[in-house]
């Protein structure tokens, strides 16, 4: 069977891989490490401190999907979990403010913290090893040096907007040494938390702990981690002239080129967004076949900022390996 | 600087900004498309609830003065010298004051918070005699009038946004309601059959034709019928004991000659003459030929209800009285000239004969033109007049009592006595508005449910309530007529917005651009008609009345003259109206069947503005619209310049109205301003409603009122009984023009959810929705409930009073659990979490409150004993104290209000709905990684099952998704306005340009397996509303719990922690199945089992092993019966029936 998923105008065909043992009588299809090593490729398209885009070619969908799922839900990260409000005279309610603070991504290496013990007594629960403490202490006042005529709140008042950067790190115990090089700050300093007017103030303290995305989305280290399959465009009959130009227009720019003979050719199928526009036109009926490569995953990992995207991916690999390790050590599985 | 000034102005202004919606002044003006700008201009002038405000303003400014006029003088029966005359009446300002400067006690929001009434003083100027002197006294306060918010007597009228904010008011709040004792009350618009108009009806089965008219004047209300009986015609009236032959009535009214009767009723039509001839026999048989005979005949039949001390009348006087004042009471008779009345009766008779001849000539009761809407002003006026009359009567009675006393020490001053009763008017008005019971003594009218509490569930529900019209028809009656959608509702009443169920079709809503008229003066119009060539009816010859080509001219249903040139007359009349010489709300139309021109100037007619078309050309031109855009012109300028006019339903029926400019043909008279104005404010929220099955739009109208969102700009300042707020409301991606007009985009109720239409997991069948947990984590559908808890600290007659005591502490100095949320003042601390069982007000009442005071004032050191009666919170989830308010209500008792808040994230079973009547509950909340995702890694917030579409046919929802998706990709908002909106082709084009499929369907990957899904999934944003029905408020279970005192059975209902009933049908199932032990256990052992001693010899119940009737303990048997059975036996015994039990062994 081919490893191309068929993109028809009304359906997707051949979506499931069949290369597993016992599927067909002739082929072995048993997984072979050497063969996998030969086949597997990982190409990095680009990598910035927030985004990584890389191709994984030649591995099973389940493994690729496992990486995606683990990145979203099981790679631990640090987020605000407990908010102790001492004073809040702003219009925003305590719960809503706490919720907003919780969703602020923090620049903390999750490896610097240990897991919290949920069974521990309230007073022993938080230590300098498992908790980062932030505090927010803002008070709005009138700006004595306001420029007359300018009625924007930034001009009239001081501290009228409370941002994520106003969350101040309070090192506890030995944290002043361990976190000396990397004090805890919000990844995006300009996230608006609340708005104040003169006389209003917010004083609160935040305990940030380690958690996973499956528990709450705020612990997810990625904005999104997902993949798409590499598109293929197979021109089966030559398309020329005006048709070629129309054909080109059915795809995003740069996907289809037209050569000197006026014949359309596939320049870069990777750029295609698979809008299936070409399948709408009768004149291209039978001339083109769209598809996607089933074992070519174009990953896109967007970090929230706490970790670099490659670190997130490596951690997902580690988590998967630990899971495999666990399964292997499982007493039920160990028959031999 | 100029920029900020603009921002402060009325919010409608940005709709009129030169560069509104991407159109700048330099853009070419397309009349067909830009004509809709008239709509915001209309709403800027009229507002959404202008009908209420207009009616109230009319009442306060004009009608009050008329009432004073009608009840001007108070005379004394004892002292003929004495008189008191009302000169003037004013609400809210003194004679020297400025009508714009209203003295109300407190701003409206303070009234809401402090449970007060928002009212202004009513001042009268009186002239009366004191001894020999005539004294004029100004500014006498006779009571306080509740003031409608935003009316011209309200302090909010004409305020800008800043001033509103200063008064804690929301600038988007429509007003139009009252605040009475702290609650916001709306007087719903009442629909009724028009008064003082002839309605002809026929009963096919009984062969009866009847013309009826309900006469309504300030003094009385009565109904007169002209009916057929065995093909003869009679007049029927409640105060006349028998039906009177019509000829007798006409003769009594002074039309003695049979020829003239025939002329007045039938004209020269021989068919009508034949039908009518039989009635002459009737009169001849009775031997009535002269007016005197006729009057005596009628006089004998009158039911005389004479009031005390009025002189007895002779029979003929009774007859004259009946004809002059009782029959058709709204036509007044001066100097015993009955001609007008005779003409009216003849007209009714003629209509009956016409209907006898041609059964099609009957009137339709349900036709909107035959309806009148009664608004707050009219109802208040009825109420006030009643109270004012009572006030005057009481005053007079009081006066007479004092004047009767022969000697008085000082000179009598009437004013000293007028103030005593001043409370009656105030409390009368307040009571009626707060209870909704309108009881009017003089009409013997008793109407309940006139007012309703303004629903503040959402902005839309409040707005919807202001446009609601309730019908007088009984809900239980099974007639479809009044409930059906009338074609004449077009453009006047919303076609979609009506409740389901019993009130369906009876409760209606106004369309977006309707206006309800107030009364206009009749006299100037009558004079004008005569000037325009109408022959005055009082000098017209009866012979010419019904000759061919003569049209009767009717003013408010009464014949005032005839004309032979109806078309010319109507055209001239309209021309005068268009130039503003006559009020714009006077309507005129020709009825060819009745050969009549009708002019209506009465109040309560529904009308709407339309563009005038002359000679096949719309009068509104591009440069007029340019004037509107630059702000040089307002809506009223269009009216003044005769480009736009108001048509009521009857006149609309007489016009040819083009929907769009290209549809104009030569005979077209008018052009619609905008087609989407057939819908009202609530139905206007639906995107692409013209693509939906119509009941779906109706369902959305009901659900839009339950959606949680932002309520008002002052929502955090409000302390309402129950308030639902959404944490992060969004304006819809797909808007409508109505949404902008009613400011729904500023106070939205819902969020744009990314929806995937696919089946997933099986937890989505039967309209259940699948929610994404990450979306929920991030704030999707998060809402707050705020609940008010009130208490008053009472004072008791013995000088003791309720107090609030501080928290109690345990030995460690920590407050005890119950007082964990209290502060040292004994009130809940703002921001504290309060759990079930904790109290938020530690109120204590004195133990000796009922004891009387022992001798004078209590001594200071006398220590009061108090008992704790705390207000305790009960609920499955903890709440937080949001606000605590302490104030003093109007009877000087301390008033404490505590607002408790809960923040809720969506959970299983919470109800959501799109804007297309597609409601569903959350069936499962799925982890984000399990959700399907597209090429960009987007996973849906909601998964909706595709089975919701085929049977519901909500194509509008699909279009919303496609338009919404295009809007998201392009970064713009799209429109789904009714009969317009963004076109599907354009939206598909955007999708394709952005690299998506034209159809809105994306290729998705399964989140669970990671493989591509085999079907393309319809995927995009749809605006979802969270409805107020939440599981947390409904969940209930019980194992053991409280029981009712009387029956000892478990209590009923969630609020009383009641049991779950095994009902009759369930019982039947168990019986049929034969599970007798289960039955016994469910119905007795788990309910009200009771051990009783039964005496087997007498069969009665005993106690303690002793039978009191047999005086023995021999045959006592212990057994278990339901307590309810024991109760039944005892009740029977109390009725002297002895139920005797005979016990024997079964096995």
UniProtKB/TrEMBL annotation, chain A:
Keywords attached to this entry: DNA-directed RNA polymerase, Nucleus, Transcription
| Organism for this UniProt entry | [Candida] arabinofermentans NRRL YB-2248
Could you tell me which residue ranges the DNA-directed RNA polymerase RpoA/D/Rpb3-type domain spans?
51-330
Short name of one Pfam family: RNA_pol_A_bac
Q: Which GO terms describe its biological process?
A: transcription by RNA polymerase III; transcription elongation by RNA polymerase I
Family of this protein: Belongs to the archaeal Rpo3/eukaryotic RPB3 RNA polymerase subunit family.
Q: Does the keyword Nucleus feature in the UniProt annotation?
A: yes
Known SUPFAM superfamilies for this protein? Insert subdomain of RNA polymerase alpha subunit, RBP11-like subunits of RNA polymerase
InterPro entries membership:
DNA-dir_RNA_pol_30-40kDasu_CS (IPR001514), DNA-dir_RNA_pol_insert (IPR011262), DNA-dir_RNA_pol_RpoA/D/Rpb3 (IPR011263), RBP11-like (IPR036603), RNAP_Rpo3/Rpb3/RPAC1 (IPR022842), RNAPI/III_AC40 (IPR033901), RNApol_insert_sf (IPR036643), Rpo3/RPB3_RNA_Pol_subunit (IPR050518)
Q: Where does it live in the cell?
A: Nucleus
Which segments does the entry list as coiled coil? none
Molecular function terms from GO: DNA binding; DNA-directed RNA polymerase activity; protein dimerization activity
Q: Name one GO cellular component term.
A: RNA polymerase III complex
Task: Name it.
Answer: DNA-directed RNA polymerases I and III subunit RPAC1
TrEMBL record, chain B:
List the catalysed reactions. RNA(n) + a ribonucleoside 5'-triphosphate = RNA(n+1) + diphosphate
The places in or outside the cell where this protein is found are: Nucleus
Q: Which InterPro entries match?
A: DNA-dir_RNA_pol_su2 (IPR015712), DNA-dir_RNAP_su2_dom (IPR007120), DNA-dir_RNAP_su2_hyb_sf (IPR037033), RNA_pol_bsu_CS (IPR007121), RNA_pol_bsu_protrusion (IPR007644), RNA_pol_Rpb2_2 (IPR007642), RNA_pol_Rpb2_2_sf (IPR037034), RNA_pol_Rpb2_3 (IPR007645)
GO CC annotations, alphabetized: DNA-directed RNA polymerase complex; nucleus
Query: Residue ranges of the DNA-directed RNA polymerase subunit 2 hybrid-binding domain?
Result: 682-1056
Query: At the top level of its lineage, which domain of life is listed?
Result: Eukaryota
Broadest EC class assigned to this enzyme:
transferase
Identify the residues that the record assigns to the RNA polymerase beta subunit protrusion domain, covering every copy: 47-426
Q: Which SUPFAM superfamilies match?
A: beta and beta-prime subunits of DNA dependent RNA-polymerase (SSF64484)
Question: The RNA polymerase Rpb2 domain covers which part of the protein?
Answer: 195-374, 453-516, 553-614, 635-667, 1058-1143
Alphabetized, the UniProt keywords read: DNA-directed RNA polymerase, Metal-binding, Nucleotidyltransferase, Nucleus, Transcription, Transferase, Zinc, Zinc-finger
| BP-aspect Gene Ontology terms | termination of RNA polymerase III transcription
Q: Which GO terms describe its molecular function?
A: DNA binding; DNA-directed RNA polymerase activity; ribonucleoside binding; zinc ion binding
Q: State the function annotated in the UniProt record.
A: DNA-dependent RNA polymerase catalyzes the transcription of DNA into RNA using the four ribonucleoside triphosphates as substrates. Second largest core component of RNA polymerase III which synthesizes small RNAs, such as 5S rRNA and tRNAs. Proposed to contribute to the polymerase catalytic activity and forms the polymerase active center together with the largest subunit. Pol III is composed of mobile elements and RPC2 is part of the core element with the central large cleft and probably a clamp element that moves to open and close the cleft.
Summarize the subunit comment. Component of the RNA polymerase III (Pol III) complex consisting of 17 subunits.
Query: Into which family does the record put it?
Result: Belongs to the RNA polymerase beta chain family.
Query: Could you tell me what this protein is called?
Result: DNA-directed RNA polymerase subunit beta
List the source organism: [Candida] arabinofermentans NRRL YB-2248
